[in-house]
Design goal:
Length: 293
């Protein structure tokens, strides 16, 4: 069955987003996620995805959103990041269907200090839902990996309840992605911190599932943000398989080989074999490119 018979072209949210991720998992591929900063980079990404006949995830980072609105605007309270991200999402909605592919609108890493940005985008989602029956964005990412695990999960759950009410998906990060991006600097963390534990994944899956199944998990398996030559980053995607087995063992009667939707951050320097292994263990999204400001 072809993807076009399962989800429509243009921006996908809610049930169609779940169908898209399920189709990717069942057919052994991950959807590329690209950070953008302008209408030009959005158009280039959509054109490349169209020509590759691939669904695509358009992402706005905190800095990318501010750049989209204009670097001269004040951003002390994250107002420029909110304005630019929301404006960018509206632009994607205005052109996405013309490219004939499914498109996911997403916001990238949001650390605790950037929560006013998240709040502003979620407010725009709720207003758009009231008018159109779906959120403006397809999904958002909370990266509270610098916080204690219990606090990370608790804050994510408070937002997940609001997002579930408007069929918006939450991507959360557990464990640490090394390197630096958008003000989150993990360049000097201990190596042991770069690997999420199976018990962590189960705690998230169990607690989030009590609210909704609209969530994905960015687990750490040696990932590092930045530009590296192949072989310089020591990835262990086999850990994702162990996470899936652990969660499956906790789920009574589960028939799914990979019950968790995983996402892959910090893939620079990955080999084709490492990416293929990660996808085989339930990775449905790979962040492949960042347009640096």
């Amino acid at each position: 069955m072809s993807l076009s018979t399962i989800v429509p072209a243009g921006v996908v949210t809610g049930d169609n987003l779940k169908k898209l991720f399920t189709y990717a998992k069942e057919n052994g591929f991950a959807i590329p996620a690209v950070n953008v900063t302008s209408t030009s980079t959005i158009n280039a990404t959509l054109e490349a995805a169209r020509d590759s006949k691939s669904p695509v995830i358009i992402q706005f980072s905190n800095g990318g959103g501010a750049f989209f609105a204009g670097k001269s605007l004040p951003n002390k309270e994250q107002e420029a990041s909110v304005l630019g991200s929301v404006a960018g999402a509206h632009y994607v909605r205005s052109v996405a269907a013309a490219y004939g592919i499914p498109v996911v609108i997403h916001s990238d890493h949001c650390a605790k200090k950037l929560l006013p940005w998240f709040d502003g985008m979620l407010k725009a989602d709720e207003e758009y839902f009231a008018a159109h029956g779906e959120p403006l964005f397809s999904s958002h990412m909370l990266d509270l990996s610098e916080e204690p695990k219990d606090e990370n999960i608790s804050i994510c759950k408070s937002y997940l309840r609001r997002m579930a009410a408007i069929n918006c998906l939450l991507e959360m990060e557990i464990g640490i992605t090394g390197g630096e991006e958008d003000g989150v600097n993990n360049e000097h963390v201990d190596n042991a911190s770069l690997y999420t534990q199976p018990e962590d994944i189960w705690d998230i899956y169990r607690e989030f599932s009590e609210i909704t199944d609209m969530f994905t998990i960015a687990a750490a398996f040696g990932n590092v943000h930045g530009v590296y030559k192949p072989g310089n980053v020591k990835l262990h995607p086999e850990l994702l398989g162990k996470h899936q087995e652990f969660v499956k063992g906790k789920l009574s009667g589960s028939k799914s080989k990979n019950p968790v939707f995983f996402v892959f951050h910090g893939g620079s320097g990955s080999t084709a074999e490492e990416i293929a292994m990660a996808v085989s263990f339930g990775v449905v999204k790979v962040k492949v490119l960042i347009f640096n400001l």
